[in-house]
TrEMBL record:
Pfam families: Lactamase_B_2 (PF12706). PANTHER family: RIBONUCLEASE J. It comes from Lederbergia citrisecunda. InterPro entries: Metallo-B-lactamas, RibonucZ/Hydroxyglut_hydro, RNase_J_2. This is Metallo-beta-lactamase domain-containing protein.
Length: 432
């Protein structure tokens, strides 16, 4: 009886705090005895970010309005739980946007590539309030890592539209769980394709379902590489280009720089993006960064290996320039002869019509006399590919989430749709 009791008490549990039937932030926790492993720490509703909250009570206010989930022991305002670790699958806001509110004594782990990018994002002040050097540990791929006495994790690289994305395998004494994070499966995405071979068949597979939607179920998607999809379209454009990109996708920067080289254009980045271009060694003779002549105090980012260019110079050479324009800098375009230019929207912010700012962006583009071309590539595998992945992983229980209609995915054996905040013993899920 004693023994049975011990087993009952020590059995691994899983709890989801956010990100089930939505593409909003994902957060879940694996617990064994008092050891806690939390996977991802994403902003649940990005659009509420704009809501003014009181600085003294920011965390509890954000919890009240549902931006931060009700999770104990890991937030700045909590008495810290020394048995908790947070792991981040990749550096998208819906997977890590809440790290800024994490208690400084809670260890955070991520892939080494993610950590490097995260450090650079701090340098350009795009990510606040975490002492990356002290608190964050970069964990190499394919190396088992003990997060606590009984919980071990291993990172497997996957492809997504951000550098450093990882799937996470979590092993406890009585359960194995694989979490895919966000995954893409273009023809060059060999890391994702390899996941079923190297991660083993787990008890539980937690898999994203962003593109698992009714209208996509029977479609036969284009699965070329990202560059193969974008390059020809970029090269076809004859007018000057204004582009809006998401610069955490370092590969996309590389594609744009190469396309501009082939078109014999100067490519001009905003300083923050230029900093990343330099940090990842993508600088080239035709790359420039825009320097603010009027206000030198704004030129805070240190860039040594890329030539600066002024707005006047951009204006004088406008027909031979491709210019980056983030939405929050769009006013700059008022000073340039952009009428007739092509506005290339390539997964920058605002990303799509679900964001209220998107309508404003379209209005700006129209008023300025530009033509918009959407040249994005989804970071997510197609519905049929997600189904392939779930089947190939051969998990005893498949948990689809992080999509609008996760219930459309069924695993090869059992499929389970959890509820928010409920604690499930994994043994009970395996029993069905
Ligand atoms: Zn993502």
């Amino acid at each position: 009886m004693m023994i049975e009791n011990t087993i009952e008490n020590s059995a691994t549990t899983i709890q989801f705090y956010a990100g089930l039937k939505t593409i909003g932030g994902t957060i879940f926790e694996i617990k064994y005895k008092n050891e806690r492993f939390i996977a991802d720490f994403g902003m649940v509703f990005q659009n509420k970010e704009g809501v003014q909250v009181r600085p003294q009570t920011i965390i509890s206010d954000l919890q009240t309005i549902g931006v931060i989930p009700m999770i104990s022991g890991v937030l700045k305002t909590d008495v810290v739980d020394k048995n908790a670790t947070i792991a981040i699958s990749h550096l998208h806001l819906d997977h890590m946007g809440l790290l800024q509110y994490v208690h400084p004594d809670v260890p955070i782990i991520m892939s080494e590539e993610s950590k490097t990018l995260y450090e650079h994002l701090h340098t350009i002040e795009e990510e606040p309030n975490v002492n990356v050097g002290q608190q964050v540990k970069g964990v190499p791929f394919h190396q088992p890592f003990k997060v606590s006495e009984h919980i071990k994790v291993e990172f497997f690289p996957v492809n997504h539209d951000v550098l450093g994305a990882t799937a996470i395998k979590i092993t406890t004494p009585d359960a194995t769980i694989v979490y895919t994070g966000d995954i893409r499966l273009h023809e060059t995405d060999v890391d994702t394709a390899n996941l079923p071979n190297i991660a083993g068949s787990p008890d539980l597979l937690i898999i994203e379902t962003t593109n698992v939607q009714e209208e996509f179920l029977d479609s036969n998607p284009v699965i070329q590489s990202e560059a193969d999809q974008l390059m020809p379209a970029l090269l076809e454009i004859e007018s000057p280009i204004i582009f809006n990109i998401y610069h955490r996708n370092v590969k996309r920067l590389e594609t744009l720089i190469e396309a501009a080289r082939q078109k014999e254009k100067l490519i001009v980045f905003e300083p923050e993006t230029a900093y990343l271009v330099q940090a990842f060694n993508l600088e080239a003779p035709h790359v420039r960064y825009l320097i603010d002549e009027q206000d030198a105090s704004k030129n805070v980012v240190q860039i040594q290996r890329i030539q600066p260019i002024t707005l006047d110079e951009v204006r004088d050479n406008f027909s031979s320039v491709w210019l980056q324009s983030s939405y929050h800098h769009i006013r700059t375009l008022l000073e340039l002869p952009v009428k007739g230019a092509t506005y290339v929207h390539s997964n920058g912010v605002p990303l799509g019509s679900f964001d209220p700012m998107y309508a404003e962006l379209l209005e700006w583009i129209e008023k300025l006399g530009m033509k918009i071309v959407v040249l994005g590539v989804s970071g997510h595998a197609a519905a049929a590919q997600i189904k392939w992945m779930a089947d190939a992983m051969q998990a005893k229980v498949t948990i689809p989430l992080h999509g609008f209609t996760p219930e459309l995915l069924t695993g090869p054996y059992q499929t389970f749709l959890p509820e928010i905040n409920k604690i499930y013993p994994i043994s009970s899920l395996l029993k069905g």
